[in-house]
């Protein structure tokens, strides 16, 4: 299986290469990293200390899709819009991490633990959309709870790390944090990648706001779970906040059902679900936090759910706290799990 990683020098692309190096997929042949012309010729295997044989970086303008079996796009919506159909037309299965195709009816939006049936046959356009990072951890926590009864409404507040803004976002957070610690005037900080200075700050706006005041990220959190879970009428309200955390997204989730539910039943359903780490309500059990989750190679592959508790004013509602590594679970891992799922089908 020959794989092209488009956007290979970015944070998600590099995570894809690291996961491939770890053997997440069997029978990997060529690994072709693709990036901007300025990165052409770089040896990413050597740069990242990987054992996997990776070809030198090829420039976007020079890449030949012929012979590529899988193309993983992590280079942003404009590049995906332009080149993903080209790779698909050449016979590759495209897994796209951008927002370019997510809400198109003939493109499946896939989280393998939630809606694997969407890949029972090859997508008509040869493209599979990878959901937004914050959506993936949300639906993976919600899906087991459907065993308790019908979900009526979800209210989610997300606290999203700087790595969601790519390498530029990480560099900006590091530089501005260092400057402020060295005595720089906070009032002199310039807005950058995140619209406002992020160091020692919270920014309650991720992406542009629409005429109704909802940000682009909040729209994703409303629309994408509906499509993935096959619940087009599900009521979802979101507030998305950028926080001064290097890596790892966290979510406070309020889930309302049509009938009474108990935290104990919710914990049992969550604990029975592979790929989740669940924290009980005994103080000794603790709770998930982005720093320890993202520091561990094992934990960063899991969705972490804790603080499961009743809404004392509504017997039909629960609160959850959900944490995941947004580069791994929220992007690269899900993309490669889509490839693994497709590889088990006769059509690939």
UniProtKB/TrEMBL annotation:
All residue ranges annotated as the Semialdehyde dehydrogenase NAD-binding domain in the record: 2-122
Active site per the UniProt annotation: 133 (acyl-thioester intermediate), 249 (proton acceptor)
One BP term from GO: isoleucine biosynthetic process
InterPro entries attached to this UniProt entry: Asp_semialdehyde_DH_beta, NAD(P)-bd_dom_sf, Semialdehyde_DH_NAD-bd, Semialdhyde_DH_dimer_dom
Catalytic activities: L-aspartate 4-semialdehyde + phosphate + NADP(+) = 4-phospho-L-aspartate + NADPH + H(+)
SUPFAM superfamilies assigned: Glyceraldehyde-3-phosphate dehydrogenase-like, C-terminal domain, NAD(P)-binding Rossmann-fold domains
Keyword Lipoprotein part of the UniProt annotation: no
Record SMART domains: Semialdhyde_dh
Keyword field contains Glycosyltransferase: no
Keyword list, A-Z: Amino-acid biosynthesis, Diaminopimelate biosynthesis, Lysine biosynthesis, Methionine biosynthesis, NADP, Oxidoreductase, Threonine biosynthesis
Subunit structure as annotated in this protein's UniProt entry: Homodimer.
PANTHER family given in the database record: ASPARTATE-SEMIALDEHYDE DEHYDROGENASE, DEHYDROGENASE, PUTATIVE-RELATED
Stated name of the protein: Aspartate-semialdehyde dehydrogenase
Species, as recorded: Frankia torreyi
